[in-house]
Amino acid sequence: MRSTIRKTMTHVSPMAVAAVLAFGAPAAANDQLVELAKDPANWVMTGRDYNAQNYSEMTEINKENVKDLRPAWSFSTGVLHGHEGTPLVVGDKMFVHSPFPNTTFALDLNDPGTILWQNKPRQNPTARTVACCDVVNRGLAYWPGDDTRGPLVFRTQLDGHIVAMDAETGEDVWIMENSDIKVGSTLTIAPYVIKDMVLVGSSGAELGVRGYVTAYDVKTGEQRWRAFATGPDEELKLASDFNEPNPHYGQFNLGTDTWEGDAWKIGGGTNWGWYAYDPEVDLFYYGSGNPAPWNETMRPGDNKWTMAIWGREATTGEAKFAYQKTPHDEWDYAGVNVMMLSEQEDKDGNMRKLLTHPDRNGIVYTLDRTNGDLISADKMDDTVNWVKEVQLDTGLPVRDPEFGTRMDHKARDICPSAMGYHNQGHDSYDPERKLFMLGINHICMDWEPFMLPYRAGQFFVGATLDMYPGPKGDRQNGLGLGQIKAYNAITGEMAWEKMERFAVWGGTMATAGGLTFYGTLDGYLKARDSDTGDLLWKHKLPSGVVGHPMTYQHDGRQYVAIYYGVGGWPGVGLVFDLNDPTAGLGSVGAFRRLKEFTQMGGGVMVFSLNGDSVYTDDVNTGEWIPGDDA
Amino acid sequence: MKLIALGIVAAMSLAAPALAYDGTNCRAPGNCWEPKPDYPERVEGSEYDPQHDPAELSKQGESLAVMDNRNAWRVWHMAQTGSFEYDVTKIPGYEEGGTPPAQ
């Protein structure tokens, strides 16, 4: 890797002082992350805190003054392609990541025009050829350090490596191999820190990769445990009381018994989405993805435990529960989406620890996260048609055979499409309003399977797809591919909903200022009234958005930041200049109009009220003074 | 809670067969797949047999084992020397597939 260190900080904010004071204290790193996240000035992990709510208590920017939001500063990553995820802010530093080649930057918020350090890995370019859906990366993880080791920043690389970097210098501390591109396995997931471990998922189900999650020691890189999504129970790391509260979900031996022969060895179930964690019960949560291949006829069985919501004990990796949302998937409804944690009263008035998950299959699931009980399962949109309902007592989806897929048959008008009514976007929860702000796709499809052999490292999909706007969009003109909605998980009602020109791919952020922010594929950062959904403000960015917004505070001022850089699965037609509507696993046709609204780019755009920043506070900030070395 | 759940399991096992695959006719808890009309219960030997090559199916597991082994050497070397070396061939004593000496 090439690492350059620009300069050290000359100004230390109160927040940074607090962080330094915390450093070296006897509190565990886990607790330090919790404490850092309590300060709304910080954004210490992809979902802001372990609850993954993407919610900020800050109110400086609010409904009344959001019209005055203006660009404060910006930063180009120097990389094109899809910029998913969001930057992190800890104290006076912003940590920025990029798609392949996965360059990492640390910026000095006292003078954001200064790059404190950058770390650009040298990767095998072959990694690009085995990535299914552009060359995206979803972000970084931060470990605050302890009394023997300073803070670390973690990065995954498309070529399958997990890297620990010194947060102060950007120097590599260790690099481990997690995924082998020669067998089609890549990494796009944001790493996730729990205690003194960093968790890493896996990508490559479109190449038949058997999914797994691995925990590494943050200081040494030593593997603590690894748990697979398919196969024998001991490799799944099932606890002895696995699914005991809900035996109807299934319990033991199903990771092999629900597959024919050894098909589980190439059965997919990778996890490349997001994690959440409840320190009180030491359980972390994530979703396993689609079974491989997409052609369902080639893999009889329920294909467990692909498509599952997992609750695993962080210390041991043991699974306490798993709930399979889409048994025997026939549509690529990869179940990796965000898990948002909340505490709410259920319909009977009992306070519950909840997990809410908007799935690709068009259903929003809410579970009791302590035991996996299914509490609600509501359609994100009334146009979902593959399933009639989800039985809350059995957990089973009642499929509509009319929209099933099979060999020698072209299934038509299936809603949602393989992209799901919700994909990788990291959404938000507003605890004051008890509303989940959902960025939604409104895309349906035709699906025709075909047979193909498995060859390690080659694509293993077996279906041709045509995608187009859902019934509420404009199919003739290829627009109306997205929605934004506010969902109450207890009542099952949508407080409001609005249509969008394209999919709301990147996710949302809610604030106590009564605002819901999100970026659009055609390149707008928008702010809506969280109570009504009314559009209050927007700004056109240099390129489309596939990441989620964040907010931080520096020197007492609130900022809102978001990556721009169109790409990801919906952008593959644009970024690779493809025209066959079935190319890009069907996305090229669905997003054929995107190039009329935006083009490639890559960077961070930061906003504040009136555009105020360190540069308007003092126009001399960042000026070169003769004799300075920076 | 457990009694309710067991009741659900019993009810599921008594479910009547669906006319077409709707996913609710379970042979056991968590095992509810059934072939669609005119499609085989098992694909091996049928016109939909993917004819998997066992050697290809084993490659992922073999690759993981090799990567884990190299990682173990890297961890061992850093514990011994305090410095990290990615290129395992530069680690004194490294032997492909061998186990690092006890710490």
Structural write-up:
The complex is a heterodimer of chains A (630) and B (103). Chain A is mainly beta and 630 residues long. In chain A, 7% of the residues lie in helices and 33% in strands. Chain A has seven helices and 39 strands. In chain A, the strands form ten sheets. Chain A has a five-stranded antiparallel beta sheet. The longest helix of chain A is centred in the N-terminal third of the chain and has 10 residues, at 29-38. Chain A is globular. Chain A starts with a strand and ends in a 13-residue tail after the last helix. Chain B has 103 residues and is mostly helical. Chain B has a domain at 50-94: Methanol Dehydrogenase, Chain B. Chain B contains two helices and no strands. Chain B has helices spanning 2-13, 54-81. The longest helix of chain B has 28 residues, at 54-81. At the A-B interface, β11 and β25 of A face α1 and α2 of B.
Short description:
Chain A is mainly β and 630 residues long. In chain A, strand 10 (161-166) and strand 11 (172-177) form a beta hairpin. The radius of gyration of chain B is 25 Å and the shape is elongated.
Which term fits the overall shape of chain B? elongated
Distance between the termini of chain B: 48 Å
- Tell the overall outline of chain A: globular
Strand order of the largest sheet of chain A: 1-7-6-5-4
Give the overall pLDDT of chain A as a whole number.
Answer: 95
Low-confidence parts of chain A: 7-27
The low-confidence parts of chain B are: 1-6, 9-18
Average residue pLDDT of chain B: 87
